[in-house]
Design brief:
The chain has 377 residues and is an alpha/beta fold. Helix content is 44%, strand content 10%.
């Protein structure tokens, strides 16, 4: 600004120029804020679309084991990365997880509550629940909160915030799939379109139904379609069944259960003959902190001498842990506890050429899958 009566340029602080016109300003853009906003859009794309070409390049270079929101600036960063990374704080202060199945959301460290004053849980974290996921707060195979568990974990503020979150029902995600031509791929489009006398396509019928149908009619029809879609998926993905072993062999199915956040685990195994009849079964409770892969390897290590002690010579062992099966059949060495378990399994199998280890899908290992949960209890 200039002195009164003096000639020259009339200067004004930039902050005042950026004030809205309704408040007697000129509404000039804040250049720094505008630049940060545009950089934030690029950062948001990296966070929400990590599979793009530029997303894969940045991930490989700057955050190979994480994501953009948790990435560090790194050593000798490029100007482009330094600029986009500067918007990370802005995104961290404003983003929140939208809860679906909750399997990828950490309860204690991630912002997922719908409370504008504090998006994170403020309850003190119990040491034995350090790896708790939001999915662990839900009833098994249901889209509802486990209220009894919530009352034992959270304080009043967090409990109220969690209960306020509406878990989306599966029928909502079904509508999203339907509009991506999934029905066409399933070969059911003509069947569904026969109900749409006034529409030219299934998509048009769905949206016309949502616009004109009553709540009761919409709910009933969408639920019926969701059941058809579920039946189709069950037929395709869950039709894998347990098969009897070759003639002269027994089959031993093995599985392990490692509950999240607890220092215990369970192992189960069951032996059946070439007719599918039960021969023997065993469940082993274990104490200590182990990974899921390590627990599966321990299960195989326990099963080998157990089967041999029963006097069975030709046995096919099946596990639903592909990495364990591959490691047992390879020569790769691992200096950790897991590697020691694998070496002991290899040594046992070398002396028993008629003991075979194969991988099987979870759907064909259901019986053994249930046993270790009982063993842990």
């Amino acid at each position: 600004m200039k002195k009164e009566g003096a000639s020259g340029i009339n200067w004004l602080y930039w902050d005042k120029l950026c004030v809205n016109k309704n408040n007697s300003g000129l509404r000039f853009r804040n250049l720094q804020g505008s630049n940060l906003a545009m950089l934030g859009k690029q950062g948001w794309r990296l966070a929400t679309n990590p599979d793009t070409l530029i997303g894969r390049i940045f991930k490989a270079r700057y955050y190979p084991r994480g994501d953009f929101l948790n990435a560090q600036l790194g050593q000798n960063p490029s100007f482009t990365w330094r600029s986009i990374w500067s918007s990370q704080v802005l995104l961290q202060n404003g983003f929140r997880w939208r809860i679906g199945n909750g399997k990828d959301v950490d309860v204690w460290s991630e912002p997922w509550l719908r409370d504008s004053s504090n998006l994170r849980v403020q309850t003190e974290m119990p040491s034995f629940l350090c790896n708790l996921k939001v999915a662990d707060l839900m009833l098994r195979n249901q889209r509802a909160w486990d209220t009894d568990f919530l009352y034992t974990v959270f304080d009043d503020r967090d409990l109220e915030s969690v209960m306020a979150i509406k878990i989306p029902p599966k029928t909502k995600s079904f509508l999203w799939r339907a509009c991506r031509a999934c029905w066409l791929e399933a070969g059911l489009l003509d069947l569904v379109k026969s109900c749409a006398e006034k529409s030219e396509s299934f998509e048009e019928w769905v949206f016309k139904l949502l616009q004109t149908g009553g709540d009761c009619e919409v709910s009933k029809i969408v639920t019926i379609m969701a059941q058809i879609w579920k039946s189709r998926n069950d037929l395709i993905w869950n039709s894998i069944q347990w098969h009897v072993p070759p003639s002269g062999y027994l089959k031993c199915n093995i599985d392990a259960f490692v509950p999240c956040g607890l220092s215990s685990y369970g192992i189960g195994m069951i032996i059946r003959d070439e007719f599918g009849d039960f021969v023997a079964g065993k469940m082993i409770p274990g104490k200590g902190v182990v990974s899921a892969k390590e627990a599966e390897a321990i299960g195989l290590l326990e099963a080998l001498p157990w089967v041999e002690g029963l006097g069975h010579a030709k046995v096919l062992f099946e596990l639903d842990a592909l990495s364990v099966v591959k490691d047992v059949g390879s020569t790769i060495t691992d200096l950790l506890e897991y590697g020691s378990i694998i070496r002991r399994c290899r040594n046992h199998l070398i002396s028993k050429s008629v003991f075979l280890v194969h991988f099987v899908r979870r759907q064909a290992n259901e019986v053994a899958h249930v046993i270790p949960r009982e063993a842990r209890l």
